Amino acid sequence: MRVTPAQLNVLKKLTKPHKEVVKEHPIDAYNSRTIGSLLRRGLVEKVTHKLFLHGAVQLTDLGREVVEESVAKKKEKYWYAYTLRGCSLGCQPRGFVGTDDTCGRFGAVAYDRELTEEEVNRYELQELEKEI
């Protein structure tokens, strides 16, 4: 399920307890629209709590799955080897997260997303099968 970055931030905050003795989180004016959209999608559920005037929310199982999926996806890196030249300005698409000069003839570059076929061809990169 696709969620916006704001929704993902709220979901990540909901994974930790609000206070030491209170696991639920209050609904406040700052995140009420985001909480409303998460309620409609079934990622959080509204619960009543005596400490919170406007109610509280907690994660559902589906919400926990979305958070775990985003954390696992965040750790995944896609590596591409340079075929004609090394790392320098304009020799790779924007947004790379790391480089390695020991891999391949001219080194390799890492991305947190999979590059499109057009980007690979334009910058003359070669996808590496194994992760470095």
Describe this structure in words.
This protein has 132 residues and is α+β, with helices and mostly antiparallel strands. The chain folds into 2 domains: 5-73, Arc Repressor Mutant, subunit A (Orthogonal Bundle); 77-127. It is 31% helix and 19% strand. The chain is built from 4 helices and 7 strands, in the order αβαββαβββαβ. The chain has helices at 5-14, 32-41, 61-75, 117-122; strands at 25-26, 44-47, 56-59, 78-82, 98-100, 108-111, 125-127. The strands form 2 sheets. It has a 4-stranded antiparallel β-sheet. It has a 3-stranded antiparallel β-sheet with strand order 1-3-2. Strand 5 and strand 6 (108-111) form a beta hairpin.
Spell out the blueprint of helices and strands.
Blueprint (H helix, E strand, L loop, with lengths): L4 H10 L10 E2 L5 H10 L2 E4 L8 E4 L1 H15 L2 E5 L15 E3 L7 E4 L5 H6 L2 E3 L5
Antiparallel strand pairs: 1-3, 2-3, 4-6, 4-7, 5-6
Distance between the termini: 29 Å
Q: How would the global form be characterised?
A: elongated
Task: Using the 3D structure, state the CATH architecture of the largest domain.
Answer: Orthogonal Bundle
Class based on secondary structure composition and strand pairing: alpha+beta
Strands side by side in the biggest sheet: 5-6-4-7
What count of domains describes the coordinates?
2
Report the CATH C-level class of the largest domain.
Answer: Mainly Alpha
Protein name: Defence against restriction A C-terminal domain-containing protein
Domain Defence against restriction A C-terminal: 76-128
